[in-house]
Design brief:
Blueprint: H1 3-26, H2 28-60
Length: 61
């Protein structure tokens, strides 16, 4: 990776870290964690439903 590209990504990750720190210390992290838990449960349920329907379709053939 050339030098300028490496510097670019270093700056990008530094800015992301600063923004994450601001959100973490600002109290937004609790709400984000609650939303993430809900989305994780929804994702797991959808994955299980998809798996069951896929299995059911293959068992008929």
């Amino acid at each position: 990776m050339p030098g300028p590209a490496r510097l670019y990504w270093a700056v990008v990750f530094f800015i992301v870290a600063i923004v994450a720190g601001i959100f973490g210390f600002g109290g937004i992290a609790n709400e984000s964690a609650a939303i993430a838990k809900i989305l994780a449960v929804i994702g797991i349920v959808l994955a299980l439903v998809s798996f069951l329907f896929h299995r059911r379709r293959w068992s008929r053939n």
